[in-house]
Specification:
The complex is a heterodimer of chains A (about 500) and B (about 425).
Chain A lengths: L15 H4 L19 H5 L16 H12 L22 H7 L2 H4 L11 H18 L3 E3 L5 H18 L6 E5 L5 H8 L3 E5 L9 H9 L6 E7 L11 H10 L3 E5 L19 E3 L20 E3 L11 E5 L2 E5 L16 H37 L15 E4 L1 H4 L5 H10 L6 E2 L8 E4 L7 H20 L1 H5 L12 H6 L7 H4 L6
Parallel strand pairs in A: 2-3, 2-4, 4-5, 5-6
Antiparallel strand pairs in A: 1-7, 6-7, 8-9, 10-12, 11-12
Helix pairs in contact in A: 4-11, 6-11, 7-8, 9-10, 11-14
Chain B lengths: L7 H10 L30 H13 L6 E2 L12 H7 L2 H4 L11 H18 L3 E2 L6 H16 L3 E5 L4 H11 L6 E4 L10 H7 L4 E7 L10 H10 L3 E6 L16 E5 L15 E5 L12 E5 L5 E5 L6 H4 L12 H34 L13 E5 L4 H9 L3 E2 L2 E2 L10 E5 L6 H12 L1
Parallel strand pairs in B: 1-12, 3-4, 3-5, 5-6, 6-7
Antiparallel strand pairs in B: 2-8, 7-8, 9-10, 11-14, 13-14
The chains are: A alpha/beta (about 500), B alpha/beta (about 425).
């Protein structure tokens, strides 16, 4: 039975370009208080455009209705559980939005004098020290704009350090359960990638790893990039041993902090041998995902990597904050200015709201929610790895695919029950993966509704599997033809294409 | 805690359902040596009121209330209220990347409109769903040119934003992509075509130019494009001041456009978050990095949108992907989309014309150093060390121009002054007076 939702009326809406009509506008500029300049004279006629062909022409009222109508076609964390594994879709506190918009912070220009930027620099410093305490690392840069950007920065740091030791080395080891960004990053930093298999417990195969590092070519290995807990939601119990094996050969341990929400306040990467890691502030520290960005991917490191940090580095000089650019061993600049400052403000507000003990309590709730779901769904779904779950649990569609229903179909049916799907088909080492991360945000009631929905779908599949294959039934848009899109992509609107479709 | 929606009795009930008695048992399996056997050394949690107080104190310790003539890649433009209203809606703010197209048509449709408007603005055929920012879009565009041409080297103008060039150098270092700079003309402030031609060779994948360039000056895009194309290289056109495209001819001679949209409703925010773009000619579609939305149909034949060409991307291609990029800047791009909608075809042009008029009012009082045509910022020599004139202006609650010697030591006392539609005539007069003395 579907308890969480029932259908309601949703507005149709054409594209802006189809709604436009000449002469309409939604703006009014103040009267110019200086003489008006003729663009053709000032710029030269060849440099001036006639018009922006095709650009929208709508009124303010139509603009707000347009975007509000579009917004109603989205699912969001504000509407309910968003159980995407490894994405950490947690509540985004609204006070964080408010403080990020305070004039002195939101309108601070990156080149305004440092003497007039001390408050903004203090925010950066406060967040740096909080994140260092949380990770147990020695130094940090907040500049990377996203997780993958942090990975690139981190691996460039590894490379710069190894180069300073005389040899940058050639290979990066990546477990088969890793995010795709890990191998793509290694490649951008000039490394080749070697995959490491997982063992029957869903953990890294330490023996295989030790074997690799015993071989003659082990001096080629620059680092191991590991996500801990892994994308199976399992803590790598031999992680300290792994670090030891790598360090003995001069290689480094990189930790992808995508799953840091499982660890905050319980254990610190700096204490179990990690040399370099990135965090995702838009995951663990609640900054809004915004439909796919902005993110922020700080990189925390151990002491030996510090000389190589990207410029600038914040430091205090005779009582005042100062950006230090004089760092001869730096990997250089990874982004203009100082990072996604507005995201940093929000993350710090989140940390302040929770405080030290509160952050740990949030972690414990996240673990409890995942384990509660695991316990309730285990009778109905195949659990490929029985190792303890941290903040997420990965089932497979083994039982359901026997009836011809795969994880992707099941996910679509979940939409009819009023939930966003879990992460589908990832990690790839689990065939037909159903990867569920509830986060600490969910109430028991919301979790119970989700569990009921998953059980109900399992029963539908037992009795009438075909009915699930066409899901979702209740959405404004039914399944979208992604194959057609990939074969014949249409990535922009054009007037000639619109006529037959304007009735949408 | 107000963000954790459970009572203690519910927690007990859930733990019991898990077959355990205490919360500690949830992480009892962590190896002993990894456990943190103490509280985090962070202050206890605080209330909403205290959080606002905390940040207000820091906001007060900045340039709040100052007028500013800084540009240099970050511009003060008025943001219509509607932009914030829309991006504050939870349905946009708190949704994830639109992988599940059936319940993400709002985000997908807005991105499709964004891609379309970027094409209209730049005169390109295709655009992606946005990049981190302008500075990282530049190396991504360069890497794209390397893939397209099969050549290794890129030539970048010295009047491309210095920080963009630094990021390009960082990205290029380990990819076998040599980066060489070419100069600018001392009189016009435009790129030096002779120097460019001398440095072009068979290994050059792309020529990267910016217009308006870092000095605010409009480049001769066609001449640079002709030179690049003559040598089989692509032209990458970079913009840092998106508002200029309201009035300037679109860079249709370029092959790839990489830019920064901060000017479109995105507050300076001490350097970010902003949104970058990459647009290109149709034939380079499959070499674009990052997210891309396509029109398609659903099973009922209705128009619908979805992410597409993911076979270029890291989660499928892993180490062979076009880039490691994963996120775009969806919410910021949405803000820019609303901004472009509110101003629209007429408004963006009028806005650009106002910027032009304001900057030229200022330049009627302070002589520009270069002779090339400029949009809303220009280089002017301070009467002495820039620090002195700027210090004087700070006393009048005005932040003056950027001293250029940190990036261009050869320019001595030169400063970069920017005037937008938000610059008041009275403040411009004060700045002008300080420069005359």
């Amino acid at each position: 039975m579907i308890r969480k939702v029932r259908p309601h009326i949703v507005q149709n809406e054409a594209l802006l370009f189809e709604e436009s009509s000449p002469g309409k506008s939604g703006y009014q500029l103040p009267t110019l208080d200086v003489p008006s300049v003729d663009p053709h004279l000032a710029l030269g006629s060849g440099n001036v455009r006639d018009e922006i062909e095709g650009f929208p022409e709508v009124s303010e009222v139509e603009a707000i209705r347009h975007f509000t109508r579009l917004s109603t076609w989205n699912y969001a964390i504000d509407l309910g559980l968003y159980p995407l594994g490894s994405c950490t879709m947690k509540y985004n506190p609204r006070v964080n939005e408010l403080v990020a918009r305070l004039e002195g912070l939101a309108w601070a220009h990156p080149y305004q004098p440092e003497s007039l930027s001390q408050g903004a620099m203090q925010v950066i410093a406060d967040l740096e020290s909080a994140l260092l305490e949380i990770t147990g690392m020695d130094a940090i840069t907040l500049q990377p704009a996203a997780g993958a950007h942090g990975e690139l920065t981190g691996i460039l740091l590894v490379r710069a350090y190894l180069e300073s030791q005389g040899n940058p080395r050639k290979r990066i080891l990546v477990p088969d359960s890793a995010h795709g960004t890990n191998p793509a990053t290694a490649s951008m930093a000039g490394y080749s990638v070697q995959n490491i298999k997982s063992n029957e417990k869903g953990m890294m195969d330490v023996e295989q790893l030790a074997g690799l590092l015993e071989r003659d070519d082990a001096h080629d290995i620059a680092a191991l990039m590991v996500t801990n807990p892994s994308t199976l939601g399992i803590f790598e119990e031999d992680i300290a041993k792994v670090a030891g094996i790598l360090h003995a050969k001069g290689a480094m341990l990189y930790m992808d902090g995508a799953n840091m929400n499982a660890l905050v306040g319980l254990t610190r990467p700096g204490d179990f041998g990690v040399d370099v890691m990135h965090l995702n502030l838009h995951k663990t520290f609640s900054t809004p995902h915004g439909g796919g960005g902005p993110g922020s991917g700080p990189v925390a490191i151990k002491k030996h990597l510090e000389p190589f940090l990207p410029v600038p580095v914040l430091k205090k000089v005779s009582g005042a904050w100062h950006f230090d650019y004089d760092r001869p061993q730096s990997i250089g600049r990874v982004r203009a200015f100082y990072g996604n400052f507005g995201v940093l403000v929000r993350a710090l507000a989140y940390i302040l709201a929770h405080g030290g003990p509160g952050l740990r309590n949030a972690t414990v709730d996240a673990l409890m929610n995942a384990n509660y779901i695991r316990r309730k769904l285990e009778p109905h779904y195949d659990l490929p790895y029985s190792s303890p779950s941290m903040h997420e649990v990965v089932f497979s569609d083994d039982r359901q695919s026997a009836h011809g229903v795969k994880t992707g179909d099941l996910a679509k049916r979940l939409i009819d029950y009023g939930f966003h799907p879990y992460t589908v088909s990832f990690p790839t080492i689990v065939h037909g993966a159903i990867m569920i991360e509830p986060t600490e945000t969910e109430s028991k009631r919301e979790l119970d509704l989700f569990i009921d929905a998953m059980i109900s779908i399992a029963k539908e599949i037992d009795t009438d599997p075909k009915s699930v294959l066409q899901a979702p039934y209740s959405t404004r848009t039914t399944r979208v033809d992604e194959v057609m899109a990939a074969r014949r992509p249409i990535v922009r609107w054009k007037p000639d294409r619109s006529s037959s479709q304007a009735a949408d | 805690m107000r963000y954790l929606p459970k009572s203690d009795s519910e927690r007990q009930e859930m733990l019991a359902a898990c077959g355990i008695a205490t919360a500690e048992e949830l992480y009892a399996h962590l190896p002993a040596e990894a456990k943190l056997n103490r509280e985090l050394n962070l202050a206890p949690g605080i209330s909403e009121y205290e959080i606002i107080d905390f940040f207000q104190a820091r906001a007060d310790d900045t340039a709040q209330g100052y007028a500013s003539f800084l540009g240099a890649g970050v511009y003060r433009h008025y943001r219509p209220v509607l932009c914030d209203t829309i991006v504050s809606r939870g349905e946009f703010l708190t949704s994830y990347t639109p992988y599940q197209a059936e319940i993400a048509q709002g985000t997908l449709t807005a991105i499709f409109e964004f891609q379309t408007m970027i094409c209209q603005l730049t005169g390109m055929d295709v655009a992606n769903a946005s990049m981190y920012d302008g500075s990282t879009a530049v190396p991504e565009a360069a890497m794209m040119a390397v893939r397209v041409t099969g050549r290794a080297k890129v030539l970048v103008s010295r009047v491309v934003h210095p920080e963009y060039r630094e990021v390009l150098t960082t990205y290029a270092r380990h990819q076998g992509m040599p980066v060489e700079e070419f100069g600018y003309h001392a009189e016009t402030g435009q790129l030096d075509l002779e120097d460019l031609e001398a440095k072009l060779d068979r290994e050059t994948a792309a020529v990267i130019i910016q217009s308006p360039n870092f000095f605010g000056i409009i480049e001769n895009v066609r001449a640079a494009a002709d030179l690049a194309h003559k040598h089989g290289a692509l032209l990458i056109f970079v913009f840092a001041e998106a508002a200029s495209l309201g009035i300037l001819a679109p860079p249709t001679d370029a092959d790839i456009v990489a830019g920064e949209l901060q000017s479109f409703a995105i507050s300076p925010s001490f350097g970010g978050p902003y949104a970058g773009i990459i647009a290109a000619k149709e034939k380079f579609l499959r070499q674009l990095p990052g997210r891309l939305v396509s029109q398609s149909v659903d099973t009922n034949g209705n128009r619908a949108f979805c992410l597409t060409l993911s076979t270029r991307e890291q989660h499928i291609r892993r180490e062979k992907a076009t880039s490691n990029i994963c996120t775009n800047q969806a919410l910021i791009a949405l803000m820019a989309t609303v901004y472009m909608t509110v101003y629209g075809k007429e408004g963006l042009r009028e806005l650009a014309a106002q910027n032009l008029s304001k900057a030229h009012y200022l330049s009627s009082k302070i002589k520009p150093r270069f002779t090339g045509p400029f949009f809303n910022e220009f280089v002017a020599d301070a009467p002495g060390p820039p620090e002195d004139v700027n210090q004087k202006l700070l006393g009048k609650k005005i932040i003056g121009g950027l001293a250029l010697n940190r990036f261009y030591p050869e320019l001595g006392n030169a400063t970069l002054l920017c005037a937008t539609e938000m610059s008041r005539r009275a403040n411009m007069d004060i700045v002008a007076e300080a420069y005359v003395q």
